[in-house]
Every structure is written in structure tokens, then in C-alpha cells.
Amino acid sequence: GAVVSQHPSWVICKSGTSVKIECRSLDFQATTMFWYRQFPKQSLMLMATSNEGSKATYEQGVEKDKFLINHASLTLSTLTVTSAHPEDSSFYICSARRDNYEQYFGPGTRLTVT
Amino acid sequence: AQTVTQSQPEMSVQEAETVTLSCTYDTSESNYYLFWYKQPPSRQMILVIRQEAYKQQNATENRFSVNFQKAAKSFSLKISDSQLGDTAMYFCAFMKLTQGGSEKLVFGKGTKLTVNP
Predict the structure, then answer these.
(1) Cβ of A107 and B43 within 8 Å?
(2) Residue of B nearest to A32 (CA)
(3) Contact at CB, B45 and A105, closer than 8 angstroms
(4) In angstroms, rounded to a whole number, what is the distance separating the alpha carbons of residues B112 and B37?
(5) B59-87, pLDDT tens digit by residue?
(6) In this predicted structure, which of A54-58, A98-102, A104-108 has the lowest mean pLDDT?
(7) What's the rounded Cα separation, in Å, for the pair B33 and B50?
(8) pLDDT exceeding 90 applies to what percent of chain A?
(9) How high is the pLDDT of residue A101?
């Protein structure tokens, strides 16, 4: 199979602090990973496309300096929410692209900012 | 830009019956893929079925099948013999094929399906 993990699954942080979310492809190499945000009862919105060894491509309206993405290896991408505020509270989902076009999704991370 | 429309926010069906979820999309591309994803309460996205636009034959996966009408830009999902475990949000998604491997998925707003015992 193609398994993607995310860590942590749930994180609570205080306003003004930063939090890092990891996305790992466990049994395949992923040159491209994607980060999505999902608000309650809404659809997935693509935040950015992460390519190994290069800068991420952010979607319009997503703050690059707030949502830092690093794709340091073929199996790991990280999303850091800097200076988090309550409005950043959401469900963050990553996906990893295998050698074909298909994306495999992680289980998601619930971020709560107090 | 591509858009995906799911006109049914919520649907319900009795166990063992058949239900069809609607999806339409708008694109000027000729080469693309379409997907249906399931998101159960666990929130893990699960691929249900995919369709390559160049294929005329409708995709099927066990109890799941699609009705792909390329000219009408319609891509509906039929679930036969509905089971309680089918209860979930269902998202229709579009992917334009590009060189370089950074194809993006564009999701519809989803349809919440409830299977009743």
C-alpha cells in the first residue's frame, strides 16, 4: 500500500506560539506533497504544494511567512504555523504524490489555538 | 480555473438500497482525472473511485460505479447495496494533468451521506 502519516494528530497551543506538523510517506518516496486546510463541515482547500529540495508553491491568499513549509527529504514535509492565532485553528491534511498522479492522504492534524 | 459543484449537501439512503451522488465540473482542459473521495467521521480521506477523462468506459469498484458524461461535464457516483459503513462525506475532485508532477486536486463542497438501518 501507500501509507502517509501525520504527527501530531491533535495539538493545542497558545496564541503567539509556533507549531510544527510533520507529514511522512512511510513506504514510498514522494517528490511532491500537498498541504490542505479543512474547516468544520467544509471541503479541503489547498494551501501549498511542496516539492523536495525546492521552495513550496503557495496558493493565492495563503501567507507564506505564516505557514512555513519545508520538504527536506523524499519522505518528509513539515508545515510550521508561526505565531498562531485562534483563527488558525483548523484541521490540516497532507497528501503525498507517488510515482503516478495519485495522491495519498494522511490522517490529518487538528490544531487548536487558545 | 476549474470548479467542481456538488449540488446535494446532504443525502440519506436505507441500508441495502442504491443512491446516486451528483457532481458537475467546469474545465476547458481535455486531459484530466476525476475522483470520488470518502471522508468518514475519522476524517481520513479514502479514494473511492477514479476516472480518466480519455476513457469512455465508466469506472467501477465493487459496489461503487460512476456515470461519466464528458460532454455534459458530469461525474455522478452510484453506491449499490448501501452499507452502514458508507456513511461519510463524499467529495468529488478534479485533477488537471500537467508535466512536472504537481497536479492539484480541486474539490467540491461535499455531500454528507447517511445510511440508515
Answers:
(1) yes
(2) B102
(3) yes
(4) 12
(5) 999 999 999 999 999 999 999 999 999 99
(6) A98-102
(7) 7
(8) 80
(9) 78
Residue A27, all three cell numbers: 513506504
Q: How far apart are CA A35 and CA A95, in angstroms?
A: 7
CB-based contact B75:B51 (threshold 8 Å) = yes
A95 shares contact with chain B (CB less than 8 Å): yes
Is B102 in contact with A57 (Cβ distance < 8 A)?
yes
CA A73 centroid distance within chain: 15
Q: Going by C-beta distance under 8 Å and a sequence separation of 6 or more, which residues neighbour residue B75?
A: B23, B24, B25, B34, B36, B51, B66, B67, B68, B69, B92
In this structure, what DSSP letter does residue A80 have? E
Q: Which residue has the cell 495563503?
A: A62
Distance (Å, whole) CA A35 – CA A69: 9
Residue B101 has pLDDT above 80, yes or no: no
Report the candidate in A28, A22, A66, A75 with the shortest Cα–Cα distance to residue A47: A66
